[in-house]
Specification:
By secondary structure, this protein is α/β, with parallel strands linked by helices. The protein contains twelve helices and ten strands. A seven-stranded mixed β-sheet has the order 4-6-7-8-3-9-10, with helices on both faces. Strands 2-1-5 form a three-stranded antiparallel β-sheet, with helices on one face. It is globular and about 60 Å long.
Amino acid sequence: MIYLKKFTLLSEDVEYDMICSKKNIFNNLYPLRIFSEKEFRKIEFEPITIFYGGNGSGKTTLLNIIALSIKATKRSVDKKGELFEEYVKKCNHELINQDNCKEMKFISSDDVFDYLLDLKAINSNVNRRKDELVQEYYDYRNTSSEKTNLKQYEEIKNKYDSNRMTVSKYVRTRLRNNNIIQESNGETALDFWQQEIEDNSLYIIDEPENSLSAENQLKLKQFIEESVRFYNCQFIISTHSPFLLALHDAKIYNLDSVPVKTEKWIDLKNVKVYSQFFKELSEEFE
């Protein structure tokens, strides 16, 4: 089933007009130029569509643009700024089969982490520490650099991290038990996806492989394929996991290429690296 059929990003000309009108207002022009420089405008979706690329390729940005444009629900509201919102308003999309669509939802990797963290907190003091770190995060964000004691390395680092990280990442990197996910039930992260995904729905998912072992990534792959085949779901996914890139009949946009193009999963660089690695060690498996 397809609910989001097409999406059109801004052209270079439209972005140029925005830059000219806003250059004296905004120092940060994000998300302008990210996709126009890759000659990437028109996206046509299949029941499973994947955005592949390395860090900084724009995968997460693209998912956020699409989710905000179609008004997909999110667990947490993350303000991207006035320029980002204006960019989204100028994008075009085509939705179909809306009478059959129960929900359109955006799910980030932070959502999975928060779910796992909350479960662990039931029988530990992590929840208390998490709240303290959240408060610490906002305290540092609201503290000017001039008021920070520059003799204290940790304060400088915390101030810097609070400005460049999301609150979830800030908490995660500071929890003493940072391997909390690995110590929890190995099926818990997979359970999250099985609880979140319902029939007749559209899901925009950012790197679902996070927190999942290779075995559970394969289970998630099967679950997604069955949700499409039997339960009329549509998925738009960002990933570089070779297991999820192998999703049956997935349409893959390679955001590392210029111009952006669709490719078979076996032709992607990340998959080829894995393939070559195991070929070189094939004798070890005999």
